[in-house]
Amino acid sequence: MSSLTIYQKEAWYDLISVWRTPGFVLPALAFPVVFYLFFGVLFSPAGSNSHAAYMLVTYSCFGIMGPAMFNFAMNIASDRAQGWLTLKRLSPMPVSAYLLAKMVTSLAFAMLIILMLFSVAAIFGDVRLEQGQWLGLALLLLAGTVPFALIGLLLGLTLSDKAAPGVVNLLYLPMAFLSGLWLPIHLLPQFLQQLAWMWPSYHLSQLGLKLLAMDQGQPVLLHLTILLLTTALLTGLCLLIFRRYTGAK
Amino acid sequence: MSKLQSPLTVTALSKRFADVTVLAGVDLTLAAGEVLCILGPNGAGKTTLISAILGLVAADSGEVKLLGQTQHGTSRSKVLRQQCGVMMQIGSLSANLTVAEQCDLFSSYYQNGYRASELVSLAGLDAHAKVRFGNLSGGQKQRLLFALALTGKPKLVFLDEPTLGMDVEARRNLWQQIRQLKQQGVAVVLTTHYLEEAEQLADRIMVLHQGQFIANGSPQQLKALTQYKVVQCCCSLTDAELQALPGVLQLSRQQGLVTLHSSQAEHTVKALFNQDPAISQLEVKPVALEQAFLQLTAPTAEQTSTNKEQAA
Q1: Per-residue pLDDT tens over the stretch A96-120
Q2: Domains in chain A: how many in total?
Q3: Could you tell me which of B125, B130, B296 has the C-alpha nearest to residue B227?
Q4: Which terminus of chain B, N or C, has fewer Cβ atoms within 10 Å?
């Protein structure tokens, strides 16, 4: 069989395997939608759809981060614990097929979450954007999935299957809050605002808000540089640990 | 691959974890088409040995040659990944995929391997093809893992404790499948801590103990090696006198009752009567094979060295 088939099958089966885990799918899809409905749409100041638009960007960031981190961290940790990854490593399957499959699954979930949130925003939040803004925002969010998937990969390679979910939450929820994804960043205390540049999720959301001209006014280049640097750093770390893991266990 | 070439040679393989020596210079040569059982109690180093051969663990020193090709550390060559089949002790598949899906996925990895439907049949799970892995019984899971190990029609198969947790019938079925592999000329390396399993399947048994092979021979040879009897009685002889009796390997006392392990029970008993006609409560019992095997791996230095000499 061609190796294209391996990549396709690996991705397809990873996707349906994850899809059949209600404990992952339901929170991954429901949380961002429910949160956005509450804080973005229902609690919107009367007559203002700019609030709903602002929160669409931040809750979309929140929505795509979670599945990307959880999917990688938990599945890789459990594949390691159960010996499934060992069997695959002893087969002719290219390791890249395994990692790409997980990436495809994360992107598929991100896409689904983006579509759901965009629909909620347009239908219930009365958010009206130009076609280019919708599209730009969707593409930005998809690309923005990558660094969070890498964080998940890093955790999945280093933590046990039991520790992984807890640690992801410990990172995910504070990071979302401190980046201004739940409450707009300008409502946070001053010192937290000053620390927000530390979080990749802050830069992703600012890039999204820039598309709507609602950002805090820092240059695009700053956000892009930090996101790309983070991604590069994470990639290097993942490669290093993946090699060490392959050698050590 | 020529008929004469050894599918697997291991030379002076060593591995330490922190302060513990898990493999202490292990040598092993597998003959073409041979079924080799590596027997040893838990913690003997069986899984580490297999893992080091397969490049899952980096050995500290030594050489591994698989199907004629020297392996380098944990790089896991193409030969290894395409022509060897592996069933590891901790083997679990994604619980959410069905038998048919797992087989489809695994068969896509190999160029000339079994097709998915053939694998399902090989595992004997045609009636369960649509059952998710998580819902299979323990024996069914092992059967599927065994079938997946054969996906690439390997020339050499590694089975690490394949019947762990199986019931008697499932175990016998797997034994049958391993015999079929042998008939097809596939070489098999099997680890187990069941002596019976080794006896049933192996052309050769090697006993691993504390990271070293302490015995190597056919099942018959090893059985003879461990065929001694237990002699119990009450008598007035001293320890030194008892030890000097013919055939006595080991001696213990419990409240006047003497227990001797003897390789020549008849001679031992005869000499006992000669030296102390007043002995009482005499009993001669065979040692169960499992127990004999434990004896073989018991940490008595003298015993170990004797076995080594006999086995060599």
Answers
A1: 888 899 999 999 999 999 999 999 9
A2: 1
A3: B296
A4: C
